[in-house]
Amino acid sequence: MTSFPFAPDAPWRIDRTRLASLAERPARDWTIDIVDETGSTNADLMEHLRSSRHEGTPSPIVRVAYSQSAGRGRRGRAWLAEPGDALLMSVGCVLRRPIEGLSGLSLAIGTAVLDALAHLPLAPSARPALKWPNDVLLDDGKLAGILIETAWNTPDATAVVIGIGMNLHGAERLAAQVDEANRIGAQSAPGAPPAALARAWPDANLTDMLAAVLNALDAALPRFEAEGFRPFRQRWLDAHAWAGREVALIDQGLELTRGIAAGVDETGQLLIDAPEGPRTVTTGELTLRLAKERP
């Protein structure tokens, strides 16, 4: 692949020395690969985990790109970002849990992202929150998305790739790009407008954000491996952006039902008090919107 022509001294580049000082154990024990450009960091690590399946249980491997030509989110939506404006990263690891034991992983990772943000100098008025099943919001705008994929599994282990895309700068430019993608039909039904971390942290930078996320994942992954989603549930409920609000479940542009968002159960399934009675919703391919929004 041809190297993307970013200036080697661009101020937004990740400072490896500072990263090592801030993310002590991950920087020492994990493989951290930073590239200028790739198609998709998730796709890169999926290929890596599949090709190295029989080489034993590896330490987590991290892939960070300043630009992605085929970045994507849930349901195949394109993830748009300009170089230096977003943290585009994936973590590949093997969790000693069967694939059915991964229920709630994307929600647990959402709480880890909140923990990372809590260690950064955000403005006191900032309101990070979580939207089921894989979005991190900031003041009701979409700050970050999480995409979990599985590379392989056995009865007692699963190789997973955890993709995280987080906007640091350029929210207005990103909003214009999203609007254009929606106009030409390149995106499915629009959700929350994009938000950038610079709203709450003017000096937002890739180095400190990456270090904070790595430290949070270093704590969250072993805990999830040992206990599943259960220990993360209360943290998620405390940050639930739409708790007690009327929401609509959308399937391929059609509204299935609406009701009051009542939280999540111990496996990460969404709980809705619908007119027809309580409803439990797995992640699947459904989309959640506030009821006042229309697909």
UniProtKB/TrEMBL annotation:
Against InterPro entries, the record matches this protein to: aa-tRNA-synth_II/BPL/LPL (IPR045864), Biotin_CoA_COase_ligase (IPR004408), BPL_C (IPR003142), BPL_LPL_catalytic (IPR004143), Transcriptional_repressor_C (IPR008988)
The alphabetical list of record keywords is: ATP-binding, Biotin, Ligase, Nucleotide-binding
Give the SUPFAM superfamilies listed for this entry. C-terminal domain of transcriptional repressors (SSF50037), Class II aaRS and biotin synthetases (SSF55681)
One GO cellular component assignment for this chain's record is: cytoplasm
GO MF term (any one): biotin--[biotin carboxyl-carrier protein] ligase activity
Which Pfam families is this protein grouped with? BPL_C (PF02237), BPL_LplA_LipB (PF03099)
Q: What EC designation does it have?
A: 6.3.4.15
* Residue runs in coiled coils: none
BPL/LPL catalytic domain segment(s): 21-225
Reactions catalysed according to its record: biotin + L-lysyl-[protein] + ATP = N(6)-biotinyl-L-lysyl-[protein] + AMP + diphosphate + H(+)
Please give the name of this protein: biotin--[biotin carboxyl-carrier protein] ligase
Q: Which organism is it from?
A: Caballeronia fortuita
